[in-house]
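Worked Example 4.2. Consider the chain below.
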Amino acid sequence: MSNKSELRKKYIQIRNDISNEQLLASEKSFLSKVEENLEIVKHKSIACYSSIGKEMRTQGLLDLLLDIGSDVYLPKMNKNSKVLSFIKYEGAKNTVENNLGIAEPLGNQEIEPENLNLIFLPCVCFDLAGHRIGMGQGYYDHSLEFSSSRPELIIIAHEFQKISDCLPDTHDVAADACLTDKKLYKF
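Applying the procedure from the previous section yields the following structure tokens:
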């Protein structure tokens, strides 16, 4: 593949082609990997995202995080801005879908990204240098431009989304790890 746009298109198609049975099996395996690495998430302030389509499903993760006592936040898109707000998540019943079909929290208790311990990031594909290709709008890159300390960044992905090189640009923010349905990769 010669550019990010081609990689994005290819891996969105691969992801969309998995069956619902594969998606459920991947989620079950992914949650098992989270439980094996519970020290990463227990009793922390964590931002996650609400999955859509054939992304690795996150509802089970969100429920688990609440059950173990973590403070959980979901991103909320802001009109006319590429910077996300992170709003306290109080459960699926306290969300509403935005215009892209992504569940966002209804509350208004916001946390600054640098005050989070951990942020889970979605991806279309990832490489072993900690780079990811997202949907192409740059919301996370714009929201995670830190001048000082930052939270740990962990990509959530299906194992088949691992590639050799995500062709990072200078503004792309690299993650610290990736958790798939098969393995925890630390970069």
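The chain is about 25% helix and 20% strand. Residues 4-186 form a domain with the Rossmann fold fold (CATH 3.40.50.10420). Compare this with Example 4.1 before moving on.
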